[in-house]
Write a structure and sequence with these properties.
The protein is mostly helical. The protein has one domain. The chain is 79% helix and 0% strand. The chain has 10 helices and no strands. It has helices at residues 3-29, 36-57, 62-89, 96-126, 131-134, 138-161, 167-181, 183-186, 195-216, 229-246. Helix 6 runs antiparallel to helix 7 (167-181). The longest helix has 31 residues, at 96-126. It is globular. The termini are far apart.
């Protein structure tokens, strides 16, 4: 087995094993109760790796590989949307009504971004010679690009509220931002002869993201909150106004 093959296997296997360590550290620090969706996502990504790696080892037919990969990637997309909602609602964990308003606003923004991303990705993919191979991934890639925009929104949202992001929220957002933020640049690698290079780059980015999560789940959360009563009242009035517009 040559060096490049070993490096490729390392990039694929190592970060998924580290996901278990991240989950264990979350349990030890009690973070799985504060971020249950992210915790579930870690376990899902590990199980997804076990399934795909088993199919690869068994040398299953290529159509089976593609179909399984599509379904499991779709599950990851769903989890990441839920994680973004979890991070946006984090400052309002004590207020269920405001959390519902934030969810409604997020759904509107998500729908708008998905439509724009879907049109863009479909247009770009149709220009490629291997469109027949990639067309089943159009929706997934569009959702990844949408999530890239929403991750930026998470940072801007905390900035708007005037509150400091908790280390865990910051780490989750940064790691996921690396994963989905690289997707727009991956489109340049989608050609018939460079799919392996694209996969290797994706795995390298995922390695960095997991190391980011591994670091930030160990950082101590601040005991105090910068979100005072005046800020809460101002944001509540603003959110209720937007809620009346989006759902009259």
């Amino acid at each position: 087995m040559d060096v490049l093959r070993l490096a490729w296997l390392y990039l694929w296997i190592a970060p998924h094993l580290l996901l278990i360590l991240v989950a264990v550290l979350m349990i030890r620090n009690g973070r799985q109760r504060d971020f249950p969706i992210f915790f579930s996502y870690l376990l899902y990504e590990f199980l997804q790796f076990v399934v795909i790696f088993s199919i690869w080892c068994l040398e299953a037919p290529h159509p089976m590989w593609l179909r399984t990969d599509e379904v499991l990637r779709g599950g990851s997309v769903v989890f990441r949307f839920a994680m973004i909602q979890e991070m946006i609602a984090a400052p309002f964990s004590h207020s269920i009504p405001m959390g519902k308003i934030m969810t409604r606003m997020l759904n509107w923004g998500t729908g708008f971004l998905v439509v724009i991303s879907l049109v863009s990705v479909e247009y770009l993919y149709r220009q490629l010679p291997n469109y027949g191979l990639l067309k089943n991934y159009v929706v997934i890639e569009a959702c990844n690009i949408t999530q890239c925009g929403l991750i930026v929104g998470v940072f801007l949202w905390h900035r708007f509220l005037g509150v400091r992001m908790s280390p865990t929220v910051f780490g989750i957002a940064l790691g996921m931002g690396l994963i989905v933020g690289s997707e727009p640049y991956m489109l340049a690698f989608v050609t018939g002869t460079r799919l392996i290079s694209r996969d290797s780059l994706q795995m390298a980015v995922f390695n960095v993201a997991v190391l980011v999560w591994l670091y930030f789940v160990q950082v101590r959360e601040p005991s105090d909150s910068d979100f005072n009563g005046a800020q809460l009242l101002r944001v509540r009035d603003w959110a209720e106004g937007v809620g009346r517009i989006t759902c009259p």
